Amino acid sequence: MARARDDWQTQILAASATGADGTRSVSEPALASAVRWLAQSVPVVIPTETVYGLAAPALDRAAVSAIFAIKQRPLDNPLIVHIAAADQLAGLGVRFSALAERLAQAFWPGPLTLVLPTQAELPWVTAGLDSIAVRQPRHEFALALIRRAGPLAAPSANLSGLPSPTRARHAVQDLSGRVPLIIDGGDLDHGLESTVIDARSEQPVLLRPGALSAEEVEACCGCALHTPGDHERIRSPGMKYRHYSPRAELWLYPPLSAHPAAARQLAEDAHHLRAQGRSVAAILRRRIDVEHFIALPSDPALIARQLFVWLRELDERRVDCVLIEGVNRTGLGRAIMDRLERAASRVHRHEPVLAPLEGA
Ligand code: TXA
Ligand code: MG
Fold this sequence. Notes:
Layout: E1 11-14, E2 16-18, E3 24-26, H1 28-39, E4 44-46, E5 53-57, H2 61-71, E6 80-82, H3 98-107, E7 112-117, H4 123-126, E8 131-135, H5 140-149, E9 152-153, H6 168-175, E10 181-184, E11 195-198, E12 205-208, H7 214-221, E13 249-253, H8 260-275, E14 280-284, E15 292-295, H9 300-316, E16 321-325, H10 333-343, E17 346-347
Parallel strand pairs: 1-10, 6-8, 7-11, 13-16, 13-17, 14-15, 14-16
Antiparallel strand pairs: 2-3, 4-5, 5-9, 6-9, 7-8, 11-12
Bound molecules: threonylcarbamoyladenylate and magnesium ion (MG).
């Protein structure tokens, strides 16, 4: 893999500006600066409505290759191409199925990525697959930039393996010096990545749960989503990598109100860890006595918006171990649990208590 430059004087520009009439709109200087860097094949960080992305023109092989070097991303993990309007799909050789049409109509612009067949030769984007992942984001800055610069390939703007950035300062932590420009769009709407659906046939497959709930996708398709079995994981190469992991150990427990045994286990674990002199944080619905306590909201949308923020902030505070309570796997809860399970170093599973065998 090519080596990325790490001596840029990274500039941070606000995505929007307040006009003379008091309304906020996309900042022209920020847009012009991003366009200039992209035209020189240099990736820049931009906000989307899900997470911050590290963007480069999809048709520019050198620029897209630089994304992999900057993030230290495995070369076999393909990228999502972001478009501003359907007519940009033609240049990507994308073929839409009837199902894909329906999904795009319903959810674009928005946090839905469709994996579709492509005839274009863009191996630097697709990692050599004959499919391509595309989405139309719903962020004004991202859309304005794509209208000027063309379709943009963009993974999340973190170093590979770390939690996705949902604040500009997280992208600064990971990529300062490695990119010349970070566009600050403030807090983002979702805080979780897009939902990735393989829409190549009439049977949709959920490759990555995300900010759009599986139930909403199913209601639109009129059928249940398949999920790839383990042997099929390769269908979405990114899902085989460990992800979203903070420096601290993350220990995951089931929802505690429904699992009193897990609640007792967590209290014991917290006690032992502190007795070992380790710095402990807990993210739970009900307060316990630990060094760092974060109250887990009951609204999954609020959890989604904050999850990666908490993980990064606890790392900044040099916490050794984070104990976190899971949520029900419905709606956004499915994506939240997916991210937690990938980030966790230990998962406390709730095992049903088996009745003793007769005569045993
Ligand atoms: O919300 C998002 O999706 C953000 C923003 C920046 O748009 N992007 C993002 O990209 O999360 P990334 O690269 O971190 O995740 C892309 C996922 C990976 O799991 C990758 O393997 C999968 O999409 N993917 C990309 N192209 C694919 C393809 N042709 N077939 C199957 N999976 C694909
Ligand atoms: Mg990512």
